[in-house]
Amino acid sequence: MDRRRVLKNMGMSLGYMVATPTLLSIVQSCKSEPAITWTPEFLAQSQGNVLTKLVDIILPKTDTPSASEVQVDIFIDKFAQDVMEKEQQDFLKMSMTKFIDKALADSGKENAEDLTTEDLEPVLASSLKYTKDQQAEMFETINNYTKAISEGTTAEIDDEISRFAFANNLRGMTIWGYKASEYVGEEVLAYLPVPGEYVACGDMQELTGGKAWSL
Question: pLDDT per residue over 121-138, tens digit each?
């Protein structure tokens, strides 16, 4: 897959894409964080190690850097810590635990830090291979679960649906974080550091060569 072309034309398709001072500060802080010494703020260290492997499964290195090379894993952890509401944080940790438990059971391993890309990839693939109708049913169940939790009532959710929720959310946040990174913003998307002439309506091919604008 020519990821460079896909990213150029992705535009604002993700609902996450909102430029706020908080998000921009997270992106800025990730730039100076040495990935090799990264210690998660929100996740446990073993979960952070799994997160790094997962984002690179979603966006591996091709003609552009892998997700972890532009520190998408750090971005996701900081976003969860600094922006997510308590209910969202709890749901992320719960669903990630269900995902890791499945990978451990399938691989026969006991510790999350021992999981490899080969262990995680089939779990990620199986967690996303659902029809649109199946996904719609799962989203309804997830919405009912989160509503019940927010109202302070007891609720349960199936492990399979939890894994789908985690995989689906992770895929969206990985693509979002990748697009928000400095490298992709300046080298892949259309980048204009100092705004110039305002064009209210114009052909994207003529204005940017077909590239979506960098935020």
Answer: 999 999 999 999 999 999
Number of alpha carbons in the 13 Å side-chain half-sphere of residue 4: 10
Helix-strand-coil split of the chain, %, nearest 5: 65, 0, 35
Residues 11-29 as b or e (16 or more Cβ within 10 Å = b)? eeeeeeeeeeeebeebbee
Residue type, position 88, single letter: Q
pTM reported for the whole predicted model: 0.73
Q: Which of 6, 33, 1 is nearest to 178 (CA)?
A: 6
| CB atoms closer than 10 angstroms to residue 160 | 14
Q: Is 191 left (phi over 0), alpha (psi -120 to 50) or beta?
A: beta
d(C-alpha 48, C-alpha 40), whole Å: 6
